[in-house]
Amino acid sequence: MTTQVVDGSAAGAPARGRARRPKGGRGGGSVLARHWYAWAMCAPVVIVTLVLVGYPLVRGVYLSLTDATEANMGRTIGMNVIPSTYEFVGLSNYTAIVTSAEFLSRLGWTVVWTVVCVALHYGIGLGLALMLNRPLRFRSAYRLMLVLPWAVPAFVSAFIWRYLLNGEYGVVNAMLRAVGLPGVSWLDDPLWAKVSVITVNVWLGVPFMMLAILGGLQAIPREQYEAAEVDGATPWDKFRHITLPGLRPVASTVILLGTIWTFNQFPVIYLVTRGGPGGSSEILVTYAYRQAFEGIRNYSGSAAWGVLILALLVILAVGYRRALRRQGEAW
Amino acid sequence: MVSDVAAPPVKGRGTRGPGGSIALHGALIVASLVAVFPVAWLILTSLKPRDAWQSSTVTLFDSPTLANYVQVLGETGFPRWLANSLIVAALTTVIGVVMSASTGYAVSRMRFPGFRSVMWMLLITQMFPVAILIVPIYNLLAGLGLINQFPGLVIAYLTSTVPFCAWMMKGYFDTIPTEIDEAGRVDGLTHFGTFWRLILPLSKPGLAVAGFYSFITAWAEVAYATAFMTGDDKYTLAVGLGQFVGQHKAEWGLLTASSVLIAVPAAVVFLLVQRHLVTGLTAGATKS
Fold first, then answer.
1. What does the alpha-carbon distance between residue A153 and residue B89 come to, in Å, rounded to a whole number?
2. Among A21, A45, A197, the residue to mutate for chain B (most B Cβ within 10 A)
3. Which residues pair with B110 in a beta bridge?
4. What's the CA gap between A68 and A75, in Å, rounded?
């Protein structure tokens, strides 16, 4: 009974700042004796994470400061061990990336991609959730159909869409032609390729948002709406002043998750357009991947891109944690 | 058809007239069609003859046949890739869930030095882009001789599933009243005994969701599998399927048939657990 166990209220949300510092110095006993249980239970994950994420991360940061490529990386061919000949080059990978036109255009497109996708995910998800939250016939049938895109593995969906959007044989163009419009080369035109990948990702991502928001809507106490009706509030007033604030806790979580997922969304871009045409639909993650595994493998350049991507996401996470704290999440 | 995914949000609540009902059902029907159509088209295409996808006239259904399925199952690497995917996904799931459950319990119930660091670690590792880890992990695995080996791929997947599952399990354990733990300890159980005998059996839905998440992640992952699995006999489904529509050929008939074979079991299981999945993901936020 030595490890301090959280009582009921601290396990819940409104324990602002409670866990800031673990309470030390209560009674005697060494820190080790008091906490070894908790540490032992965390140990497997912490060790695995340190070895498999921490070590690669440190090594990735190190590689990003060198000029390592496939050509000068040490390797073993049969019995011959070829030593590494890459050198430490300081920040030159970073300066090369940050000053390149490629970085700005990739970053710009990644930001547009993330913002547009998450906004559409949330907007459409909210709209559908509001509709499904009403008394309605066939509600569970609609719900089931609307969740379907999430149920299909993402890589399968990516292949489906590549076929649907095929310029010659795709059904989308066939429909356009059927109503007398010219077909669009969805995947072969830089602008349309971007529209296509956003469409595919929105199609994939809306169900999760819809279900999460639906859960949030059902958690809003009904009395609030009744009270507002007594006060003569219009539907818009109720939406604006009850629904949206009531959704905030759920919204902050799903928007953060959605942003991270979209920012790192690999399969959609990689499988639908392969980053093309001419690299125009490549986001930061797929670009860095291509650096590392296609052509002469540019390990250092890819690592530097990776570090930059991670830095952007960490900034996002810090902002998110601030937001959580304001709402009273303890840690 | 494609770009009008957006259905107009309908605001407010209360009673509605017949016009409102029509608009509501209309919007939901359009949205449902958009959601279902690609999957339905996939199934229809897979049932057409092998070269029917190249017809420029769109027919809903003509001369249905199972030829694509027969060929996929009999004459391609599909059965092999399926077995590979199952092995990798099963290992990832079992190892990942066992490790993440105990950590999830510790961070849910105990406050200890390093607690905040563990929480941070769990959050930050979830957002690691594949690009920064893939080369170092590749080199690490190459050093261990694990490239093109299943354990190597499982290790790579654990880096992304374990932190996320631990996070989810914490959210789930938070919803179990701490009185149960206290009762267990009054009866003389150790911390681990409480966890193992009382909390875990109560957490089967949470464990199922974490397991499902791990399974699906491993089942559908593309980047690591493409980079690490170099031999045809070690491909997972996500890599193998790409072979049907590579640079020089496009066998959409075979691709659609195998997609159906992959998606149907995944979708059935998914639809069974999806309610829990959302609860698990947003548990930390909704319980306020």
1. 13
2. A45
3. A5
4. 12
3-state secondary structure of A220: coil
ipTM score of complex = 0.73
Does residue A9 or residue A204 have the better pLDDT? A204
Using CA atoms, how far apart are residues A252 and A245, in angstroms rounded to an integer? 11
Q: What is the mean pLDDT of chain A?
A: 78
Q: Do A39 and B270 touch (CB under 8 A)?
A: no
Asked whether residue B49 falls in the same domain as residue B191, the answer is: no
Which residue, chain included where needed, has tokens 């170099």?
A: B230
Please identify which residue in the block is written with the tokens 């249980």.
A37
- Out of B70, B86, B107, a domain closes at B70
CATH number at residue B234: 1.10.3720.10
Q: Is B247 helix (H, G, I), strand (E, B) or coil?
A: coil
Contact A7 B178 (CB under 8 A): yes
Contact A250 B10 (CB under 8 A): no
Domain extents in chain A: 18-82, 100-294
**Can you tell me the distance from the alpha carbon of A180 to that of B230, in angstroms, rounded to the nearest whole number?**
46
In the structure encoding, which two tokens stand for residue A234, read together? 């219009």
pLDDT digits (tens, 9 = 90+) for A285-310: 888 888 777 767 777 888 888 888 88
* Cβ distance of A305 and B131 shorter than 8 Å: yes
The third-level CATH classification (topology) of the domain covering A100-294 is: MetI-like fold (1.10.3720)
Nearest-CA residue of chain B relative to A260?
Answer: B127
Task: Examine the domain organization and report whether B90 and B112 are in the same domain.
Answer: yes
Residues B125 and B252 in one domain: yes
Chain B, 217 to 246: residues with Cβ < 8 Å from chain A are 219-220, 222-223, 226-227, 238, 241-242, 245
> Which residues in chain A touch residue B45, judged by CB atoms under 8 angstroms apart?
163
Q: For residue B164, what are the domain limits? A: 73-286
The answer to whether the predicted template modeling score (pTM) of the entire model surpasses 0.80 is no
Q: Do B53 and A163 touch (CB under 8 A)?
A: yes
pLDDT at residue A124 in the model = 94
More confident residue, B106 or B50: B106
Domain stops at, among B70, B85, B113: B70
Confidence of residue B92 (pLDDT cuts 50, 70, 90): very high
Residues forming beta bridges with residue A76, ordered by sequence position = A81
pLDDT in tens, B228-269: 888 778 888 888 887 777 666 677 788 888 888 888 877 887
Tally of domains within chain B: 2
